Amino acid sequence: MHSVRRRWAAALLLVPLLAGCFAARDGSPYDAGAGAGGGRLRVAMAFPPAERFSPYGADATLLSRLGVTEGLTRLDGNGGAVPALAESWTRESGGGWVFTLREARFQDSTEVTPEAVADALTHATHADPAPAALTGVTLTAEAVGERRVRVTTATADSALPLRLSSPSLAILSPKAYRTKAGTRTAGTDKSGSAEARSDAADGKAAVDPAGTATGPFTLARTGGATRATLHRFDDYWGGLAHASGLDVRFIADGTARTNALRSSEVDMAEAVPVSQAATLDQPTVREVPTARTTALFLNTRSGPFADPAVRAAAREAVDASALAEDVYEGHADTGRGLFGPALTWAAGERPRPSGRPAAKRAGNTALTLATYDNRPELPEVAQVLQQQLRKAGFSVKLEVREYSRLEGDALAGKFDAVVAARNTMLDTGDPVSYLADDFTCDGGYNLARVCDKAVDRAVAEAGSRADDAARHRAALAAQTAVLRTDGVVPLVHQRIIHGVGTSVRGVILDPYERTLVGTGTRR
User: Fold this and answer.
1) Which SS3 state, helix, strand or coil, does residue 286 take?
2) How do residues 429-465 score in pLDDT, each as one tens digit?
3) What percent of the chain has pLDDT over 70?
4) pLDDT in tens, 286-334
5) C-alpha atoms less than 13 angstroms from C-alpha of 382 in its C-beta half-sphere
6) For residue 151, which phi and psi values (nearest 5 degrees)?
C-alpha cells in the first residue's frame, strides 16, 4: 500500500536552506505579495502526475511544489511549524489542538471556513492508502467556532502542527470531494463529518484539486502526464503572484530536461542529473543541500545480514567518501548519519555509536543488492558498492528495477540489501515520525527490517518531547541507537542541482522538497 506514495518520496527534488527561513533566490520572503504584472513561467518537472493530481499520494508534493495547495501550517528553515492557513494554534489537554484560521478564500471563491477545513482533514483520514503523514495516527477534526478548528488525535501527538504541514494534508474546498457518479459529498458539520466519512469508507470519494485549493496558482488544465497549465489566483491571501501563470512540462529523462533549458524551451528545469551539470552555463546552475540521504539498508531479519557481525563487515567495507567524490562528482556530502547538513539542528552533529559487534570475515558470503533507476545515480552507487563488498569477500548479485516494481519486494525482505534515497523530512517534517516509520518494529517503511528494543525505546522517548529543541536532541540520540544496529549505512547527503534561467528570480529554497514556485517567482 506504500508503493505509490513512496515512489515519489524517493524521487522528488528541491532547493536549499538559508538562515532561519525559506527565501527566494533574490531575497524575497516566501509569503511576500508580489504585485500584478509578470509573464508566465515555463517549468520542466522531473516526475509526472501518477494519480490524476490526487493530494493523498504521489502527487501531493507535486501540487505543493507548484504553488497549488497548502495546509494549516508549513515548515520554516529550522524545521519548525509556522502559520499557513492557520494563523495560530494552542494545545489543549489530552490529544486536542485548536487552530485559529486566517481570513482566506478557496480558488472557487468560497471562504475557508472551519467546517470546510474539518471536512478536508476528515476526507484525508479515510483515504486509501492513508497519507504518509497519518501513518499510525487516528485523527478527527471539528469546527468549534467562527474561525477555529479542533484537531484531535487518539493519543497525544506533540508533532501535530508539524504533521499538518504535510502536502498530503492540504486543505481543499468542499467542491473538491465528489463521488464516482460526479455528485458532491455533503459538507461537514460540527458533529464530525459523518457523511464525509461514509463516502470515503465506501471507497466512492474522488478528489479534484483543480480550482479548489488555496495556493497562489490554480490548476487550470492538464494534458495527461505530459503537461499542465496553471493560472495565477488573484485572491490569494498571501498576495498577488508576480508570474501570471505556469506552463508545466513533465519530462522524465534528465538529459531531455537539461536540453530543454539549454535551448530556452523552459525557464526552469528541476533535478538536473550530475552527469549533465557541466553542460550548463554556470550562472544557470543552482546546487542546494536537501534533507535527502542515500543509504545502504541491510536486511536484519533474514539472510546473511541477520548476523550483526556480518552487518559490521559490510559497514566496514563501505567507503562513502568515494561515492561522494566519484559517483556524485563532488555534488554530495559524505554520509555522517541519517540527518544531513541541510538540517540546521543536525549540522555539526556526528553520531558515535558504541557497543557494535566486531566484524566477521565475509568468507564469500552470497547476497543480493537491489536498487532502482528512477534516480540515475543510484545504479552507479550500487555498482561501486558491489565492488567494495566484493573486495571484503562478499559475492554480490546486483538487481536494478523501476521503483514501483522494487518497493514491495524490498519491504517484504526479499533482498539482502537495498540502496535507496530518502528525504527524512518529506512526509511529516518531524524527525521522530521518520525514525518511527523507518526503523521501529511497527514501522511502515522499514527497509532494513530493524526490530530492536533499544531503538524503540529511544524513538518513544523522543516522541514524548514537545519542545522543538528537546525533540531534536532526542531524535539525534535515537539516530545513534539506529546506527548501532548496523541495519543502515549512510552513504551521502544529497545536493540537488536545478537549472534556472538567468532571467528567473525568486526560486524558493526548501531543503524539505515541498516548494519550488511561489508569489515571488518570476522572470
Assistant:
1) strand
2) 899 999 999 999 999 899 999 999 999 999 999 988 8
3) 88
4) 988 889 999 999 999 999 999 999 999 999 999 999 999 999 999 999 9
5) 24
6) -115, 125
List, in sequence order, every residue forming a beta bridge with 141; answer none if it has no partner: 151
**Mind spelling out the 3-state secondary structure of 207-270?**
ECCCCCCCCCEEEEEEECCCEEEEEECCCCCCCCCCCCEEEEEECCCHHHHHHHHHCCCCCEEC
Where would I find the H helices in 412-452?
A: 431-439
Which segments of 169-219 does DSSP mark as H helices, in order?
194-201
In contact, 296 and 419? CB cutoff 8 Å? yes
Radius of gyration, alpha carbons of the chain: 22
Nearest alpha-carbon partner for 519 in 72, 28, 27, 21: 28
* C-alpha torsion 133→136→138→143, nearest 10: -20
From residue 245, how far is each of 39, 108, 219, 237 by CA, in Å? 7, 17, 10, 17
pLDDT digits (tens, 9 = 90+) for 498-507: 999 999 999 9
- The answer to whether 372 touches 11, Cβ cutoff 8 Å, is no
Q: How many CB atoms lie within 10 A of CB 35?
A: 13
How far apart CA 8 and CA 271 sit, in angstroms, is 13
CA proximity to 502, closest of 262, 290, 289, 272: 262
As a whole number of angstroms, the distance between CA 422 and CA 445 comes to 11
